[in-house]
Amino acid sequence: MRFIRLSFAQAVYNLRAYLRSARTVLLGLIMPVGLLVILSWVFAHQGQIAAAAGYQISAIAFYAGGLTAYGLMLGTFTGVMVAVVSAREAGWLKRFRASPMPPGSYLAGQIIFNVVISLALVAVMMAIAALVYGLQLRAISLLAVFCYSLLGVFCFTAVALALTRIITTPEMGSSVGPFVTITLSFTSGVFLPPDLMPHWLVTVSNYLPLEPLSQSMQTALANHAGSGFQLRTFIVLGVWGVVGFLIAWRSFTWQPLRR
């Protein structure tokens, strides 16, 4: 109980700090929403866009699903990396480690915080897609998107924690995170339809974490039948998440790397 209580207290602290920073709110929430509005308006005349699943879907379903996945990766992957590296290099992590506070409660608080922010992003994106652009949302589709969001948070948090060993400064993390996210977005069917990219690049992206998440969300929002759940997404993101956490467990350090 003490571990859970302290983890939620850390999550509340992170949430308050997040809301005080206009820059982080702009990057994590307003940017995906702004891109959804702009890209949906620009490509609305096309009506249908070729999705990674191999068939045509509406432009709003394509961008609502893809940009939600993009926002999840941008906020979680970059946010965890910068927050953990900043705390480590400032000497806070070693103090947490030496205090009576359970060491894992800090990291658990980071994960809970990211879940809350991610679900808020999903809620805003789905509301705009439905109320402004008329996207028909089924309950089972929303459940699928919710499950994919939790899986994405798990995966991107794990990968970010694994990379903190080689990220030595917060500035480096704030550069690497967005660069990786935007690069994967262009190859994973977030900004551009897959039929505009080389076949080999699409094939490689199938095994990277953002493409399965983006494609699954797009399909769940576009389909008017079926559950919207895809086993491939759970396998790919699950493998990335498990491997990431195993690497982090073996390599994570509470001591500053730059002294």
* Low-pLDDT residue spans: none
How can the largest sheet be summarized?
2 strands, antiparallel
Radius of gyration: 18 Å
Oligomeric state of the chains in view:
single chain
How does the overall form come out from the CA principal axes? globular
Proportion of residues in helical segments: over 70%
Encode the helix/strand succession as letters.
Answer: HHEEHHHHHHHH
Beta strands, count:
2
So how many helices? 10
What is the spatial order of strands in the main beta sheet? 1-2
What is the straight-line distance between the termini? 36 Å
Beta content comes to: under 5%
Instruction: Report the mean per-residue pLDDT as an integer.
Output: 84
Give the helix/strand class: mainly alpha
Name the features:
259 residues, mainly alpha, two-stranded antiparallel ribbon, 2 strands, globular
